[in-house]
Recover the amino acids of this structure.
């Protein structure tokens, strides 16, 4: 298990946060779409088994290009931005192999946090840690691409 999301795992087994009422366990087949870029973002997901690929759908010269942005593995969370902003999904997520995900509705989760702030704090701290980790990784990737671009201009 990813210790970064321990609070979220603990929440799934909390007696006050019942499966099928507060969250849903769903199995996905290999290459099955979890959600598409542009769809409404109303839930976040925790990978219980397997992994998913995050990809960006970009149009270039009338061609749709799908580029893999990340692989989210067992114990990791995705879609958590729905807690902080009410915007459509930025990426498409597809099951890499068969996987099992916990889908947690934003409104139900935020209501639970209001009723149980001490548990909510732990989960939010874990989610913030996951976002910071991804941001650092993204920054490194951006700097690497910038460096590559600068080198190619001098050739």
């Amino acid at each position: 298990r990813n210790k970064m999301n321990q609070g979220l795992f603990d929440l799934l087994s909390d007696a006050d946060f019942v499966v099928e009422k507060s969250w849903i366990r769903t199995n996905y087949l290999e290459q099955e779409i979890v959600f598409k870029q542009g769809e409404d973002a109303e839930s976040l997901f925790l990978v219980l088994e397997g992994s998913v690929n995050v990809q960006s759908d970009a149009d270039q010269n009338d061609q749709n290009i799908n580029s893999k942005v990340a692989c989210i593995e067992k114990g990791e969370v995705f879609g958590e931005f729905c807690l902080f902003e009410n915007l459509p999904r930025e990426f498409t997520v597809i099951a890499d192999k068969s996987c099992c995900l916990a889908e947690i509705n934003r409104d139900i989760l935020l209501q639970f946090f209001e009723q149980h702030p001490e548990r909510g704090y732990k989960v939010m701290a874990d989610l913030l840690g996951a976002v910071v980790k991804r941001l650092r990784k993204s920054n490194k990737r951006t700097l690497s691409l910038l460096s590559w671009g600068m080198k190619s201009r001098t050739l």
